[in-house]
Amino acid sequence: MATLKVPVHVPSPSDDAEQLRKAFEGFLEVVHLEMDSRSDLSQLIIDILAHRNAAQRNSIRKVYGEAYGEDLLKCLEKELTSDFERAVLLFTLDPAERDAHLANEATKKFTSSNWILMEIACSRSSHELLNVKKAYHASYKKSLEEDVAHHTTGEYCKLLVPLVSAFRYEGEEVNMTLAKSEAKILHDKISDKHYTDDEVIRIVSTRSKAQLNATLNHYNTSFGNAINKDLKADPSDEFLKLLRAVIKCLTTPEQYFEKVLRQAINKLGSDEWALTRVVTTRAEVDMVRIKEAYQRRNSIPLEQAIAKDTSGDYEKFLLALIGAGDA
Amino acid sequence: MATLKVPVHVPSPSDDAEQLRKAFEGFLEVVHLEMDSRSDLSQLIIDILAHRNAAQRNSIRKVYGEAYGEDLLKCLEKELTSDFERAVLLFTLDPAERDAHLANEATKKFTSSNWILMEIACSRSSHELLNVKKAYHASYKKSLEEDVAHHTTGEYCKLLVPLVSAFRYEGEEVNMTLAKSEAKILHDKISDKHYTDDEVIRIVSTRSKAQLNATLNHYNTSFGNAINKDLKADPSDEFLKLLRAVIKCLTTPEQYFEKVLRQAINKLGSDEWALTRVVTTRAEVDMVRIKEAYQRRNSIPLEQAIAKDTSGDYEKFLLALIGAGDA
């Protein structure tokens, strides 16, 4: 369930494109930038782009390019700065292109705490992930998998490459015999602290989400703990943290994203990079559920937490995306 | 370049379907099967199905199902037997469904010499392989990758899972710096006999075919041998055989298939399973090149070799697919 609010009567893509173009041009004419024209432009960008769905934004971008011979994204890049710029650019991108962009950034500066690759691999549907791979081919003239395989090492490589390579079955059919036997395999390996065992990686990276759910339910029932509790044996182990995040992202993505938001907001100085990523990627998907999870866990609404932690156009844009106020 | 011959004037799918239906019914009426009616039916099947492309065969199957309430494949299965049956059924299937079927058979009775999974993973284009994975989901309610991962072990698993999971970039762009550095990695690992090293698997399973070609050319130039020569250190090692086949399949598929055909035909009693597979899967793809390679290597035309080694309707069907005689 999306929080994005699209007005009942949406202007045509060419009307939207024209409005944006005029605002850019008006803004450029003002030599000494006045506060008014800057905020007018920002407000217009928010009014239009934060209230159109992916298909509508794609149409605006297409029409804009045809009418004015420039890429709308390049124009936005010229006018905007800082966190507001990143949020607007990311959100305006088509979801598959956006994920390809985020994944490519991640392969360039991969650190063990950079989980975007896992997040994209595990929280998107098989077909969405496939579209990310196609967009990656188109933008970077290579494959996502080869970049991940090339830029990661050791146990991270062993887990992340199959995760991003996966094309999981998406049906609801579940094999209960298999669920039992694989729950036992997982429990045996985890009990022996063989967290990077081939079988653990195989089960987590190839089984359908429905099958994995059945396996983990069986794990819980038969062995007395949720798997993620057993995976907390060494709380400081970075690989175990990633593995827990994988499980969470595959089975309860809204809880995974709630935690990313919570950590981003509670951080000293707050982590706008993560905040922007989660809001722009989930606003059209499951932000309603994420907000519910946030409220439940933190006892304040996400809107309020974001408003307290951010300011200006950036704040307005994020709040619009998570559905605060009217379309 | 395909060898399949489609007549200039192709009957409509419903005409073809009707002809087949009438022949099935006529055949059923004859209680004591006469040689004539059997051979009439076989000839009709060859005349129609061995001379229609994949789209046309799909249409015939669709129209047949709608008109007579039965799957054409099931009807063919009832009427035909043995090698002719398998060849007709495999060829009539849509290419992606056919590969999914072959791959599923392979996961069920995997032996180290069963290379069909590798063959499908390496000789199909990225988009063809993707369609195989989609067909696999649809037919078997699970993913190809999970079955391969589940049913293979050890070094075969380590190589085959990333190969079938790949979605390689298909463009012609090549990074020469990367080609040099990865040629050196390959040479170092092979010199140390680390054939199953992560880096070897990574390069072979993720790089685009164009990039891999550049890397292997560089290998040849810099280190004095083609990689497959260096991979012959231990000729009886089954994993090395598979790795050489992977390289061949990725870089010169027609030579790979020529060898499969040669071994199938020269075998005592000949290997119809392999012969049928190669002819039905390549007739619409690159059989012209495979025939050239066969003639070059064996000094007799493939047609002649197949005619010598097979007989009856099966022979006629294979010869029709490899373009012997008229459409």
From TrEMBL, chains A, B:
Signal peptide (from-to): none
Zinc listed as a keyword: no
SUPFAM superfamilies: Annexin
InterPro entries documented for this protein: Annexin (IPR001464), Annexin_repeat (IPR018502), Annexin_repeat_CS (IPR018252), Annexin_sf (IPR037104), AnnexinD_plant (IPR009118)
Gene Ontology biological process: response to cold; response to heat; response to salt stress; response to water deprivation
Highest taxon above the source species: Eukaryota
One of the Pfam families matching this protein, by short name: Annexin
Keywords assigned: Annexin, Calcium, Calcium/phospholipid-binding, Metal-binding, Repeat
Residues that bind Ca(2+): F24, G26, E79, I265, K267, G269, A307, D309, T310, E315
Gene Ontology CC terms: cytoplasm; plasma membrane
Molecular function, one GO term: calcium ion binding
Domain description: A pair of annexin repeats may form one binding site for calcium and phospholipid.
Similarity comment: Belongs to the annexin family.
Name of this chain's protein: Annexin
